[in-house]
């Protein structure tokens, strides 16, 4: 099986146009046609239906596509492993993370990693948790870094907790709660709470925690972006529970204030997730080792 032909097949499935695929691959249109024809002859079936000047991926092509991607990924992994074992400084580090982790926790670690392994290419996917899990299932990334509130299939994946993240109540400077030493949980009901939309793992975790304190939140605003929630608090749209790590700079500058609720300590774990059937590359193992450097 020729890896180049498989890559050409994947590109053609994305463009469904021989000219566009050829342009993307920096080759001629006849070359693309020949590679696809040869691949179809090897497989003994047609992968695309040609209708006039248009092509469509048929059922055989749809069935073959995920296997083609897996073969390409496996080839890249084996190549990276061979290079990294030989020199310790080659290959690719590919992983996914949720927004909070990717924006606030990972950058300093990546700087450390790049200093030690400057020739290793880095590909980080910052996506929603369901999308990331699909990428891990498809072998598009080596591992994920997620909140431990995300539901994981234990039969397929191995999880390892490495950090405890505290969610703290923050308010804008000048807010009525800003000057109080601490507050009682029920006082939250008097203010607008900014949080993620329904079905967000963070939102569900906060709701369960607040219900445990008999707190009913009826006045709230749903915002899908963590950064937008933080900016909403800064601009006095409401108050919010945000990772201490994510608001450290704003707390230092004084534009946000941390309000203590003695009866309410909210922590969530951060974990890395790997496939049980996958051998991690040396680069991935080196980066995972750096995760332990994050101090709570």
Protein architecture, described:
This protein is α/β, with parallel strands linked by helices and 296 residues long. The chain has 3 domains: 76 residues, Arc Repressor Mutant, subunit A, CATH 1.10.10.10; 106 residues, D-Maltodextrin-Binding Protein, domain 2 (3-Layer(aba) Sandwich), CATH 3.40.190; 104 residues, Periplasmic binding protein-like II (D-Maltodextrin-Binding Protein, domain 2), CATH 3.40.190.10. The protein has 10 helices and 11 strands. Strands 3, 4, 5, 6, 9, 10 and 11 form a 7-stranded mixed beta sheet that branches. The chain has a two-stranded antiparallel sheet with strand order 1-2. A two-stranded parallel sheet has the order 7-8. Strand 7, helix 7 and strand 8 form a beta-alpha-beta unit. The two termini are 49 Å apart.
Give a brief outline of the structure.
With 296 residues, the protein is α/β, with parallel strands linked by helices. The protein folds into three domains: 3-78, Winged helix-like DNA-binding domain superfamily/Winged helix DNA-binding domain (Arc Repressor Mutant, subunit A); 80-163 and 270-291, Periplasmic binding protein-like II (D-Maltodextrin-Binding Protein, domain 2); 165-268, D-Maltodextrin-Binding Protein, domain 2.
């Amino acid at each position: 099986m020729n890896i180049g032909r498989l890559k050409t097949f994947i590109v053609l499935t994305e463009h469904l146009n021989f000219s566009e695929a050829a342009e993307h691959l920096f080759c001629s249109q006849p070359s693309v046609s020949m590679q696809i024809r040869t691949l179809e002859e090897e497989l003994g079936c047609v992968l695309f239906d040609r209708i006039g000047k248009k092509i469509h991926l048929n059922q055989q092509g749809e069935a073959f596509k995920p296997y083609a991607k897996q073969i390409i990924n496996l080839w890249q992994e084996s190549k990276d492993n061979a290079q990294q074992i030989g020199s310790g400084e080659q290959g690719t580090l590919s992983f996914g993370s949720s927004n909070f982790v990717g924006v606030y926790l990972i950058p300093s670690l990546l700087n450390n990693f790049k200093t030690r392994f400057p020739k290793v290419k880095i590909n980080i996917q910052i996506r929603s948790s369901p999308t990331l899990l699909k990428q891990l299932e498809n072998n598009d990334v080596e591992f994920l870094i997620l909140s431990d509130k995300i539901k994981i299939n234990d039969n397929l994946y191995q999880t390892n907790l490495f950090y405890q993240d505290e969610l703290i109540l923050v308010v804008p400077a000048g807010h009525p709660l800003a000057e109080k030493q601490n507050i009682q949980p029920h006082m939250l009901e008097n203010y607008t709470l900014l949080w993620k939309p329904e079905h967000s793992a963070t939102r569900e975790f906060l709701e369960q925690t607040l219900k445990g304190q008999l707190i009913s939140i009826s006045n709230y605003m749903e915002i899908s972006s963590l950064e937008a929630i933080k900016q909403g608090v800064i601009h006095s749209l409401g108050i919010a529970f945000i990772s201490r790590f994510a608001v450290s700079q704003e707390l230092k500058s004084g534009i946000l204030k941390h309000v203590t609720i003695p009866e309410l300590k909210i922590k969530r774990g951060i974990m890395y997730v790997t496939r049980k059937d996958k051998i991690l590359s040396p680069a991935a193992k080196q980066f995972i080792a750096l995760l332990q450097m994050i101090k709570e």
